[in-house]
Design brief:
The complex is a heterodimer of chains A (about 170) and B (about 375). Chain A has about 170 residues and is an all-alpha fold. Chain A contains six helices and no strands. In chain A, about 75% of the residues lie in helices and about 0% in strands. The longest helix of chain B is centred in the last third of the chain and has 34 residues. The chains are: A mainly alpha (about 170), B mainly alpha (about 375).
């Protein structure tokens, strides 16, 4: 059951990612493929017993961030570049090839080590309580720093918007 | 939990929900007629039997199914086709985590009246709700219609804005109950606390004074967090896009908004999604704020313990289960009625008013509520030592 679900989710994630980069004509299609990828990743997290991370993935990435992407695409009525790779610089081509080559190398190395067994963990692992306890005891400094960073982002957005209005 | 009981629970609630939605169209017609001094739906009849207009939902369904299913020119065919399903599915699967009763032992079977008792129940609901946005926003875009486009921009902005307030409003409640599991919330809400208990800790009255032990209140969410109850209700109603928050489908401004290009049963799915969501909102508020399936001052285990000598263990459990389910349904129906009252009493908000309410009133108030609740919890823990 779990293995079948793993294949379904990973194939959906791969197909979605290919769809994101493949849909050059229509940005809305790209964004929708991104939603599929995000949901499939959430499914994979849940399979790995990280339920909280999976739900937050759905809530934040699939439910909010990609909605904002779609909102901007719709509002600006973007149509896409139309042609595939017409204005891609040679440097970008080289960098892209290098990234693909390096990641394929690592992917092959991971695949050749054989299949890892499904995690056999404590029932409390990955629950909201466990994540909360870890965040507010061991990693409390990181949480605070992230909070300050987000606050700075909000303030920056307000300042920029204000400048427009004044 | 045995698989069979899950299926039973699933079946019962699917039936209730799917029957609820059509009947609610009738209730809403009759209620609005009552409020506006009209007679309301009374024309549809089968062989002269009108049954107070109860045949109207049936007539509606037949009309919608037999209508032509149009596909506008220039539409994105696939997205236009799937959007209604994306809109209605989240509303239907939301019920999985809502408990409509406790756990009962009936003739050797262990019956739990919740389909999926998840550790992160409320988060699941929020996640599902955030996916529902796509059903509405893609509908307006895919139909290749300018009014639909305006509707879908409005709907996405409104739903994103209220999702923020929605989550932050109930954090205070989570802090008090210390759980996201809706069945645990139902159990915790059966407890009571002494309203004047603080006088004992302050030394104003002698410990063991009888009258302060008598005056108790149930630990319902609405008692502990009265203001968030109404803020949560407001945010949920705005998420559901029904009047007075129906700017995305404001018929006097943008014809029908995001579902303008839908006809027949696809339009019917949007209607049905809204109705089911009304039931979901009521059920969620009942489970989180109104004590779930229990009556105040009557913990379920005490009730069962009281009934066991009279009827025997099995019948006592059965009676408690029936009482629980009917209490839950009663509370849900009362909240549905309240939402309909709001719908027919308030004019539609202007779009900027909707946005101001979400960002400038609900969000700051709910953030303040988190701080106040935290201070309150610290004080109570410091005084009572638990």
């Amino acid at each position: 059951m779990r293995t079948a679900l793993f294949w379904i989710f990973s194939l959906a994630a791969l197909a979605g990612s290919i769809g994101v980069v493949g849909n050059v004509r229509n940005p809305i299609n790209s964004a929708l493929n991104l939603v599929v990828t995000m949901l499939a990743l959430a499914g994979l997290y849940v399979l790995l017993e990280a339920q909280f991370v999976g739900l937050i993935q759905v809530m934040v990435y699939a439910g909010a961030i990609v909605v904002l992407f779609l909102f901007v695409i719709m509002l600006l009525n973007l149509r896409g570049s139309g042609t595939t790779g017409a204005e891609v610089q040679p440097l970008v081509k080289i960098a892209g090839t290098a990234v693909v080559a390096v990641s394929s190398f690592f992917l092959l190395r991971v695949l050749s080590t054989g299949r890892a067994p499904w995690p056999d963990v404590d029932p409390s692992y990955g629950t909201t309580r466990a994540v909360g306890e870890a965040l507010y005891t061991d990693y409390v400094l990181a949480v605070q720093v992230a909070g300050v960073l987000l606050l700075a982002g909000i303030l920056a957005a307000v300042v920029l918007a204000k400048k427009r209005l004044d | 939990v045995a698989t069979s009981t899950v299926f039973v629970a699933l079946f019962i609630f699917a039936m209730v929900v799917l029957v609820f939605a059509p009947i609610m169209t009738w209730v809403e017609r009759k209620q609005s007629a009552l409020m506006q001094d009209r007679i309301g739906a009374n024309r549809a009849s089968i062989g002269g039997i009108k049954a107070l207009g109860l045949i109207h939902p049936l007539a509606d369904v037949i009309k919608m199914i037999t209508k032509e299913d149009t596909m506008p020119t220039g539409a994105h065919r696939f997205i236009h086709l799937v959007s209604p399903f994306i809109a209605v599915t989240p509303a239907m699967i939301s019920f999985a985590v809502i408990p409509y009763g406790g756990v009962y032992d009936l003739w050797g079977a262990h019956v739990s009246l919740v389909v999926a008792d998840l550790d992160y129940g409320v988060l699941y609901l929020f996640a599902i709700g955030s996916i529902a946005t796509y059903g509405s926003m893609l509908a307006g875009w895919a139909g290749n219609n300018n009014f639909g486009m305006l509707g879908s921009i409005r709907v996405s902005a409104q739903m994103i804005s209220y999702e923020v307030a929605l989550g932050v409003t109930v954090i205070g409640l989570f802090m008090i109950f210390g759980t996201l599991r809706l069945t645990d919330m139902g159990i915790l809400q059966q407890e009571t606390f002494r309203v004047f208990g603080f006088m004992e800790y302050l030394g104003w009255v002698q410990p063991g004074t009888r009258w302060i032990d008598w005056i108790t209140l149930p630990m319902w969410g609405i008692v502990l967090q009265p203001l968030p109850f109404f803020m949560f209700l407001t945010a949920l109603m705005a998420e559901n896009k029904r009047a007075p928050f129906d700017t995305p489908e404001g018929e006097s401004e943008i014809v029908a908004g995001y579902f303008i290009e839908y006809s027949g049963m696809k339009f019917g799915l949007y209607m049905m999604g809204e109705w089911i969501e009304v039931v979901v909102i009521s059920a969620l508020l009942t489970a989180m704020f109104l004590g779930g399936w229990t009556l105040p001052w009557l913990p379920e285990q005490e009730l069962i313990a009281f009934l066991v000598p009279v009827f025997g263990a099995n019948v006592a459990n059965l009676l408690a289960m029936l009482l629980g389910v009917s209490v839950f349904l009663g509370k849900v129906i009362a909240l549905i009625f309240f939402q309909m009252l709001v719908r027919w009493s308030m004019p539609r908000f202007r779009y900027d008013q909707v946005m101001n309410l979400g960002w400038k009133i609900l969000l700051p108030l709910s953030l303040a509520n988190i701080v106040l609740t935290a201070v309150g919890i610290l004080v109570v823990k410091g005084v009572t030592g638990r």
